[in-house]
Amino acid sequence: MHKQFFFAALLLFVASGFVVWQQNRNPKPVGITPTITGQEEYCLTCHADLPEISQSHPVETFGCVLCHGGEALALTADLAHSTMRGGANPSDLSVVEASCGGEMCHSGTPQVDRDHIQRVTTSLQATYAGAIAQVRYAFGAQPDLIARMGIYAVDGLAAFDSTTETSPALQAFGSNCLSCHLSAQPLEGIVYNRWSGCSACHSPAPREDGTQVHRLTTSMPYTQCNACHNRGNYSLSDVQFHPREDSPADRLHDYYQPIAEFTRCEWTLDCEDCHTRQEAMGDGHIYSSKKDIQYIRCRSCHGTLDSLPLTYTITDENDLALRMAFLNQVVDLKVGDTILMTDKGEPLWNIRVVPGEVGSTPTYELFSKATGKRFTFKPVMASTCQQKSDQQEARYCHECHATQR
Amino acid sequence: MRPSFYDHLHPPTIPAPQARFRYTLGAGGLAVFLTLVVGFTGILVTFYYIPTPEQAAKSVQELAFLVPFGWLMRNLHYWSAQLLVLVAALHLLRVVFTGAYLPPRRLNYLLGLSLLVICLFMDFTGYVLRWDEGVHWALVAGTNLVRSIPLVGDGLYSALVGGRQIGAGTLIRFYAWHLFGLTLILVIIGVWHIFRVRRDGGIAIPPPEARSDPTRIPRTELARREMLAMLWATVVLIALAILVPAPLAPGIQEGAGSASESLAPWFFLWVQQLLRIGDPFIFGVLIPLGALLIVALVPYITPQRLSPTELGSWFPKGSRNVQILVAILGGGMILLTSLALLQR
User: Fold this and answer.
1) Beta carbons of B250 and A11 less than 8 Å apart
2) CA B185 to CA A182: how far, in whole Å?
3) Which of residues 183-222 of B touch A (CB under 8 A)?
4) In this prediction, does ipTM exceed 0.90?
5) Contact between residue A320 and residue A111 where contact means Cβ atoms under 8 Å apart
6) pLDDT at site B76
7) Contact A11/B235, CB-based, under 8 Å?
8) CA distance B105 to chain A (A)
């Protein structure tokens, strides 16, 4: 009996030692109380080494859970991650409203231009409505090219369901050709690597080794866009995607597929240096073709022989241009600066009129949004350009200015 | 000196054969010890638990992850409760298979059986208090079972969940039952049960002339054995608390869709499996209640066929029919539980 007592007591002593060991082995909780939510969260216990996702989303203000979801108090990975929205990507369009939305955030405030989620979810990149309309028209499923269906039902568009289509070609289209819209899983291969939803454009793609970059940015090189664009062609003849087959060795050849000519600015700059928010993210209306929403022309920046490009002078500290320049600080934009503006009134905030050249045609300075590099250029007006005033499409400019590839 | 409650529970001497662990399995004593552990850790856990739908699961997570040694308190509370159900069931089997339910212990048999039932309800209410996705299905299915009872089902359901649907009212009711209602009944019947053990003549033994081994052990020896059993039980509890944490899941979200089917708490897996067969009232209420009734009627089915001289040993011949009946019931439960686990 004494031996048994001794043995049991010894075991109890050892067990108590294990209790203390276990208590010390548990991670030391690292908590923050983000000012927006006021709710404690302990994600940083494990994720202290993550860089802040962007300077617009400081962790002290937003924390992690507001965007990502998850169990704020749990310190085991399985439980903590079990309720995360969209896995590692809370911007996936299926959960974006809960993650990024709300009238204080990205689904609309009384201030203009902050309803990103409504605009993106009706945009061609998300609905794929233009491609669906064209292909359905091509195979006789609808009488015209007007967008009637989208990847999901939204704003008058019905949800496209290839299984209910009678044409085998449209069924094949459903299974072979829907890999580029914002909700689609990318094709296999590093060149197609990207996230879905907002992060398709605004976050670096997962690296080849599967590691991820915790960043939201408005500084996007053309390679980000090229995860979907310029990767190949969808063929109507066999309803398949055909990847491009060239092996580009430099930027000029890598930028676009070898199917057209481009001027120097079209491949030295990045896509977002010319194309605007509304073109990429939509303006809240349903369009039937990319041509209907893509409205930037050469003359948007260069003007014509008769007119300078549109400009305006920033007078308000809350001007959208200043907000954009804050998000991507490639230019020290300030009140009083004169910047270019599109036909629709969107600020081309990275292109500023260089002040102080009295009596001459203005000089413009463009700061690349992706690299910060400064370029200067002169308008067409007062140049030797022989353009005709009714020939303003890019192909007319390309006749003289295209680069041989 | 006037005898204390301790002396009441520990007679000066008890017969040695019936004081052996292999006869009693120590189950009654361990049940008392585990009840004390569950009660003590329960009090500690109560300081952190917040019984609102928004905060319940969070407060459990806070206890498990952030409070120093909170994980230990919670895991000990959980494991002592699970072991209590096991040990109480073992105690019941011991009593049935040794014929100890015979008069004059019929009342105490029923008291003990009701304690087991209360333990199950305690365990179920405690399980639901987690208020997380892991318990959501069992909560919905369990309360819906009540609704399936003809005539009184709807009324009982409203009384149980505190309204038309599961919500804050349900949580506070389960909380009140767990902390006060069931605890009060458990303490009263528990003390009564222990008190009756001695009143009914201590552990069941044959009359003096029929005893093969007349040796007895003193109360100090009994107390020493109890101490040893408690030490071992504590070691087992701590080991389980360290190695197998009590389950946790994300909190139930208000307005979330219906709960997806998941496993019921282990002690109701057999009912869950029965429910897969058919009508919830028949398979979820009538059959389990019928099984309980059969077990409750054991002392009344064949009390006369077991002679007192057969007491004090396992599997007396006189109560074969009862032993077979209970073995079939127990085996059925184990079979159904295994099926439920296999079909998860």
Assistant:
1) no
2) 60
3) none
4) no
5) no
6) 97
7) yes
8) 32
Distance from CA of B149 to the nearest CA of A (A): 36
Name chain A contacts of B248, Cβ cutoff 8 Å.
74, 76, 79
Q: Do A8 and B71 lie within an 8 Å CB cutoff?
A: no
Q: Annotate B289-324 with b (16+ C-beta within 10 A) or e (fewer).
A: eebbeebeebbeebbeebeeebbbeeebebbeebbe
What residues have CB less than 8 Å from B230, skipping those under 6 apart?
B33
Q: How many CB atoms lie within 10 A of CB B46?
A: 13
Q: Using CA coordinates, name the residue in chain B closest to A20.
A: B69
Write the residue in A18, A73, A76 that is nearest to B62 by C-beta. Answer: A73
The answer to whether A193 and A205 have CB atoms below 8 angstroms apart is yes
Q: Which of B287, B293, B297, B291 is closest to B322 using CA atoms? A: B297
Residues of B in contact with A73 (CB under 8 A): 58, 61-62, 65-66
**What is the value of pTM for the model shown?**
0.85
B15: which strand partners?
B216
Q: What is the rounded CA–CA span in Å between residue A296 and residue A303?
A: 12
Stretch (H or E) spanning A30: none
Determine which of A7, A16, A22, A65 to mutate to test the interface with B (most B C-beta atoms within 10 Å). A22
Best to test chain A binding among B20, B66, B72, B228 (most A CBs inside 10 Å): B66
Distances (CA, A) of A79 to A87, B60, B65: 13, 13, 11
Nearest to B322 by CA among B101, B135, B131, B118: B101
**Count of beta carbons in the 10 Å neighbourhood of residue A283:** 16
Contact assessment for residue A381 and residue A304, using Cβ atoms and an 8 Å cutoff: yes
Touching check for B314 and chain A: CB below 8 Å?
no
Q: Look at the block and give the residue holding tokens 């499996």.
A: B273
The string of pLDDT tens digits covering residues A247-293 is: 888 888 899 888 778 899 999 999 999 999 999 999 989 999 999 99
User: Residue A405's pLDDT is what?
Assistant: 64
CATH of the domain at B300: 1.20.810.10
Residue type, B237: L
Total domains, chain B? 1
Q: DSSP character for B251?
A: B
Reported as a single tens digit per residue, the pLDDT across B4-54 is 888 888 888 888 888 888 888 999 999 999 999 999 999 999 999 999 999
Distance CA A195, CA A193 (A): 7
Bridge-partner residues for A354, per DSSP? A363
Pairing of strands A402-403, A374-377: unpaired
